[in-house]
Design goal:
single chain, 13 strands, 34% helix, globular, GH, Glycosyl hydrolase
Length: 451
């Protein structure tokens, strides 16, 4: 049963304030899409073909240029790159000038290829490996989220990188780190526990450091999907959707979606779309941009021979979202089999092989990029919204309703199977007609009413 948004509701909320996060804290970078008519950007997470992220230890600019040229040839317009934290900041008070210089050379090489660059700093966690400086571990064990010296060290590092890159016109901005929320609790084997208040303070301080060092750029933070799905997780949907200049989404169907729904299931090929709509629901500013910062085709849940079709469907569905500002595929190149101990799925996620050959998924993304340029997509105006009740907004204590198998998730998928491109709306905003009108929502439906 759907609930029409009638005139009586409009009268009850007429003149009420709608809290937004508009302004400096959420305004997108001038290099990033800023309005409803902007064309989303298409790029890749750069995984160097030679040496993976260990390439910083033996940096070869010619190798980097070769890789970036290959991505530009696919028609992509940006890359996200990763600085290995222990390599760049081996001591809390020392950020290596040579490493910073090499990062600048990479950004300049990308500019020569016509690519813009977003930089992740606190690496942190990559493809099942943790890269954390020795000054945070063993004899020097500190909590990276709450220890004042540790936070000061991270701030120094971020300020150094952002300041060094601020004058480069193709520098998009900093992401604090890759999925650093995985350090904050289980299942991490050696977690750095924090409260949601402490997580918010950590995010706010480090984002402010980036903004001061490189004003006006796309400074963001990135979490894996526990932020949206895991009850009690200290990093919250409200933080994800309200801090920084855009909301970042990491969409991985191995989170239970493909296991429940199959590689061709509606939930699987529309998981990225679903997460974008969750992010939009949690935002205070209805116009806040959402960056699909990671999405890939993990085998065997997505069979390798189906990776291209999965990429085409996933990108096409994501492009129906009004707030989508960019898609950055994971990843550019396969991990070489010469490197040991990666989970099996990590070896084959590239758009190109480790020998530099374009894979079917790479061709599919190139075709999607060409279509974007030739005929910009027309996002769907989502007039129907599914009501999301995860409890109190700041902490979302019941956010597992949004996870695969949860009542909100499965109801959204059932609507999708019925042909409805549904938005999401927080339960506390259901009767705020001014807010609903700002999003074009004319009717709402509750999960229990979706048959």
């Amino acid at each position: 049963m759907r609930e029409d948004v009638g005139n009586d509701v409009r009268e009850n909320v007429k003149g009420s304030d709608v809290t937004t996060s508009a302004g400096t804290a959420s305004s997108p970078s001038p290099l990033w899409p800023t309005g409803p008519d902007s064309v989303p950007r298409m790029g890749a997470n750069y995984t160097p073909r030679t040496g993976w992220f260990h390439h910083w230890l033996d940096f070869d600019l010619d190798d980097v240029r070769r890789d970036l040229d290959a991505l530009a040839t696919l028609g992509l317009d940006h890359v996200r790159v990763f600085a290995l934290w222990p390599v760049f900041q081996p001591n809390r008070s020392f950020v290596r000038p040579r490493a910073v210089e090499q990062l600048g050379q990479l950004v300049d090489a990308a500019a020569q290829c016509g690519l813009d660059v977003a930089v992740d700093a606190l690496q942190g966690h990559l493809s099942s490996f943790d890269f954390v400086p020795s000054w945070l571990r063993t004899w020097h064990r500190r909590n990276l989220f709450t220890d004042p010296d540790a936070v000061d060290g991270a701030a120094r590092y971020l300020e150094t990188l952002a300041s060094a890159l601020a004058g480069r016109p193709n520098f998009l901005g900093m992401t604090l780190g890759n999925e650093v929320n995985q350090f904050s609790g289980p299942p991490h084997p050696d977690p750095d526990p924090c409260t949601y208040e402490e997580a918010g303070q950590w995010l706010t301080r480090l984002l402010e450091v980036c903004e001061r060092a490189a004003p006006g750029r796309l400074h963001t933070h990135a979490e894996y999907d526990a932020v949206w799905f895991q009850d009690g997780h200290p990093f919250t949907p409200a933080q994800a959707a309200r801090l920084g200049r855009a909301t970042t989404i990491h969409s991985w169907v191995f989170n239970g979606t493909a296991q429940r729904h199959g590689y061709e299931g509606t939930a699987t090929v529309r998981l990225a779309e679903y997460l974008i709509e969750l992010a939009t629901a949690w935002a205070d500013d209805p116009a806040r941009p959402v960056w699909l910062q990671e999405v890939g085709a993990p085998a065997p849940l997505v069979p390798p021979e189906q990776a291209a079709a999965f990429a085409t469907a996933t990108v096409g569905n994501a492009l129906t979202c009004e707030r989508l500002s960019g898609i950055t595929w994971w990843c550019s190149h396969d991990v070489s089999r010469e490197l040991a101990d990666f989970p099996e799925l990590e070896y084959g996620l590239g758009l190109l092989t480790s020998d530099g050959e374009v894979k079917p998924a790479g061709r599919a993304l190139a075709e999607a990029a060409a279509r974007l340029r030739a005929e910009p997509p027309r996002p769907v105006r989502r007039t129907t919204a599914l009501v999301l009740d995860a409890g109190e907004e700041a902490t979302a204590p019941h956010r597992s309703v949004c996870a695969p198998g949860g009542p909100f998730f499965e109801a959204w998928v059932r609507l999708a199977d019925q042909g409805v491109r549904a938005a999401a709306v927080l339960a506390g905003r259901v009767r705020d007609a001014v807010y609903l009108e700002s999003r074009g929502i004319t009717e709402v439906v509750r999960p229990s009413d979706v048959k």
